[in-house]
């Protein structure tokens, strides 16, 4: 699983670099409006943040490290490296996607509402770009399936002994298959992938402040973390700022939506 995700991540970045190389990216305009926006859309913020780090997917890296035997203060180096690498790569990919879309839209093109992401690649690089988008979507879909399935199934293991872990490991393959089959069935029956992606991103954005708040509270409890660990004050302050902002953005989104 780890090697598959690494290869697919390289494929995604290579494809995005190609698309950006064949389009005229308005970098100065993007930088200006990033730090001085003419308007603030809380729904977009919640959706983008939720799609990036929201919901339970925030726990996937931690669960993977725990399963790999990384525990305690000795494993903090690996935790920091994994967190920084993960959010770094995710952020770079999203910025590249945004710049590609911005280049196409500012050139005067109107995107197809049914499949706007594919339209960006088709307009930027013709049919070749459209086919490349299919490969990009496949790579993104595979990484999402791997990460989401692993995290969802790992939440079902509440055992604290060897016998319980052994029982869970025997059931894991069937749980993984059931999760994928149910998700595929849900997608087949509902359809509308673009709309579902936005809605799920928004829901994940609403979950984020709850999950992050719980983690921040837990990080300050010596009963959980032990006497040796002290959570950095700066990270706690920044974390609670994010909780407050995402809570406010989530409430605003709900008011606007309903």
Q: In one word, what is the shape?
A: globular
Radius of gyration: 20 Å
Annotation field: number of helices: 10
User: How many domains?
Assistant: 1
SS class: mainly alpha
Helix content: over 70%
Q: Quick check: average pLDDT?
A: 81
Sheet of most strands: none
Membrane topology: Multi-pass membrane protein
GO molecular function, one term: metal ion transmembrane transporter activity
Transmembrane segments: 7-30, 42-62, 83-108, 128-153, 174-190, 196-220, 232-256
Protein name: Manganese transporter NRAMP
Q: Would you kindly provide a written description of the structure presented here, covering whatever features stand out?
A:
By secondary structure, the chain is mainly α. It has one domain. It is 79% helix and 0% strand. The chain is built from ten helices and no strands. The radius of gyration is 20 Å and the shape is globular. The model has no long low-confidence stretch (mean pLDDT 81). InterPro entries: NRAMP_fam.
What distinguishing features does this structure have?
NRAMP_fam; transmembrane helix; 10 helices; mainly alpha; membrane; 258 residues; metal ion transmembrane transporter activity; transmembrane; single chain
What is this entry, summarized?
This protein is mainly alpha-helical and 258 residues long.
Give the helix/strand layout.
Elements (H helix, E strand, L loop, with lengths): L1 H20 L5 H9 L6 H12 L6 H8 L8 H31 L9 H39 L7 H29 L2 H27 L2 H4 L7 H25 L1
Helix pairs in contact: 1-5, 1-6, 3-8, 3-10, 4-6, 5-6, 6-7, 8-10
Organism: Fructobacillus tropaeoli
InterPro entries: NRAMP_fam (IPR001046)
Protein name: Manganese transporter NRAMP
């Amino acid at each position: 699983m780890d090697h598959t995700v690494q290869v697919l991540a390289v494929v995604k970045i290579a494809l995005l670099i190609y698309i950006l190389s064949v389009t005229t990216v308005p970098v100065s305009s993007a930088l200006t409006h990033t730090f001085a926006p003419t308007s603030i859309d809380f729904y977009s913020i919640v959706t983008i943040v939720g799609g990036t780090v929201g919901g339970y997917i925030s726990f996937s890296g931690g669960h993977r490290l725990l399963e790999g035997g990384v525990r305690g203060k000795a494993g903090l180096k690996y935790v920091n490296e994994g967190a920084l690498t993960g959010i770094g790569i995710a952020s770079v990919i999203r910025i590249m996607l945004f710049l590609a879309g911005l280049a196409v839209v500012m050139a005067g093109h109107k995107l197809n509402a049914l499949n706007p992401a594919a339209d960006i690649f088709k307009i930027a690089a013709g049919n070749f770009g459209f086919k490349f988008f299919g490969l990009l979507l496949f790579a993104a879909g595979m990484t999402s399936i791997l990460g989401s399935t692993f995290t969802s199934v790992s939440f079902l293991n509440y055992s604290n002994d060897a016998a319980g872990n052994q029982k869970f490991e025997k059931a894991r393959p069937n749980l993984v298959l059931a999760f994928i089959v149910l998700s595929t069935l849900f997608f087949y029956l509902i359809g509308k992938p673009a709309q579902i992606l936005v809605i799920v991103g928004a829901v994940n954005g609403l979950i984020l402040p709850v999950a992050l708040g719980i983690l921040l509270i837990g990080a300050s409890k010596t009963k959980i973390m032990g006497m040796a660990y002290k959570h950095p004050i700066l990270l706690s302050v920044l974390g609670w700022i994010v909780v407050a902002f995402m809570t406010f953005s989530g409430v605003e989104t709900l008011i606007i939506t309903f």
